[in-house]
Amino acid sequence: MFQYVRTRSFLIPLTLILLFSMLTAACGSPQPKLVDGKMNIVTSFYPLYDFASKIGGEHVNVINLVPAGVEPHDWSPKSRDMQNLSSSDLFLYLGAGFEGWVHDTLDSMKKDSRVTVVETSQGIQLLPGTEEEEHGHEDEHAKDEQAKDEHAHGSTDPHVWLSPVNAKQIALNIKEALVKVDSAHQADYEANFKRFADQLDELHNKYKTQLAQLPKKEIVVTHHSFGYLAKEYGLTQKALMGLSPDAEPTSKDIQQMMQFVKDNQVKYIFFEELVSDKLAKTLAKDAGVETLVLNPLEGLTEEQAKQGADYLSIMENNLNNLIKALQ
Question: May I ask which residue range the UniProt record assigns to the signal sequence (predicted)?
Answer without folding.
Answer: 1-25
